[in-house]
């Protein structure tokens, strides 16, 4: 699903009403026009959550004597949206100039003294409600001089002689976030000298940021690492890195003690502190691995599958050299192994499962290196996210990789217990080798519980997969080969608990101009039924784009055509005995006049096919009550951030279903599967979060949005472990609409997709616990109460905005669920 609206709250949008038509002011000369020098300058400025967010004038200027400080309440604050906006409204003292014409740039300064890096959003809107939006970078302890090119604003249709407001947002975090703004200015030359603004920003940052505390802590960590090292060649190589870190820390402390800096001096100083904050704990990872085996040629640690192990820069949370895994019969589970060089390059690194031992029954295991993509987070993330090489593709195609001295290499170990696996502890041995080095073995202890989960998902999915994209990027033109390839991808999706389906029923790429929408061929339905089992399928997509919202008199003709197409399709489904599984989907995110068109269309579909359910994602937060669509729609699927539990329960009470879906607008604090998000988000969304909300299904607009136009320089993930495949998918947001990858010969799994499947299995565990408890009404009260507590999932999820991202906490809850299912099963 797509959401194209700007990230502005109702408060900000309403601010435009402060300027009435005809109140444009005369253009002013270039220079600073808002400096926040008096309290009166804040009059008319608004914030998103007035009861918690605040603005105040402080003596932290980049020009003049003062600036404005914007404090943003934490994400968990009641009523808080994902971001908070500061809005300066024309016609008030906060924005004294509403005519920006005749100039080249609008500039202003932003800085934060906090260790907080994220992407914010700036919106300029005119009195005719035309808007221009652009991202701006918020970097830890840094000054950001923002320059908005006025020609770009006018190109978006905004009348810069009649500005209504400028809104500037900052994503919320777990704690209060602070940003400083000053020196709003009109500029005639580009580039222009900003050094005076930057030098003042540096003075404020040095005063406000606790650099002394940061460097003191780092010095202590470095000293600890030095004491942990011995005197072998590997230790001496690592000690050289420790000594280098110690020298860098000392130099930074000396620079800090020297006194005032220009921004030209401050910028490398701050960058040095940031780099040291990353390199010291990362070096600690390697030294920890060294301590676990002081005779090894390289380190070998493990990490949770719900976490990311970045190849460069960032540290990771080790779960030790001998990981423990817990799974039920019929279930997948995963763990990561991490190869860490001891300050020297490792060549020809290979991993191989050498043995699986334990109780009788099948436990299978595989291992593959994890690849990385170069990710640039967008403002849609709404959270601090690392920009750079980010792990995700599981590179089953690579048998050997080189690991540079400054890189660590994660490996994905995938386990599967067969439905008939005997309970007990299995030992999975995985050998890791490198050229000229002694082989190291990791032993994974996998506990298989005496519980068998249902193989088929209990949670519905309706996820779009587009075969035409696969055919395009692989150059497949032969119809028979296209059909075989489609079946390969269907099998892949089915393995990952995604029922093959199409939201947008066309043999084309749905985003292409003028897509031809046709009903799902009965042959496809029968293939899915015979090979994977059939729960339901979308018979036909009712594309609102074929209706002119301003000409309702033309709607009925198109509706009649749809009914005719659908009747032919339903006849073929009935003849094949699959008509009872059909539903129709339509009016994707429709609003305005198209809501009336939806009502007319759905009424016609119901009249012709009363037993065929209708699913929609149209914009009706009341789920039919306010629009009169109740009784016409059977399956309501709102965006997850618009999902209201009370409305959903009212909808279910009248016999309809209430699903939800993530999309590009579903940023933190809600879960999503953007590249760089903690993988636990995917697992939680599909598991305890969906179960707790009671949603009958999850919908998603695309699984393989790999458009040639976005990936022309690297169509496939078939190059090195650090792949040049472009991570950015929809509107530059990496992972949106792309849940896995086009590998050298077919679909390539991702960490995000693996966690998706794990979440689907966790949902089945909860279903099983609920089913078993219901089947035994005479359970001991304490056991029954404990089961109810686990089913509520309060230990890991409060609602869709509040949930744990701690894998240890999640696994404790999950193990408790499995143990409780086991205990319930023992009660007679």
TrEMBL record:
The keyword Signal applies. Residues 553-767 form the Glycoside hydrolase 123 catalytic domain. It comes from the Bacteria. Residues 1-26 form the signal peptide. Keywords: Signal. Pfam families: GH123_cat (PF13320). This is DUF4091 domain-containing protein. The lineage of its organism: Bacteria, Bacillati, Actinomycetota, Actinomycetes, Propionibacteriales.
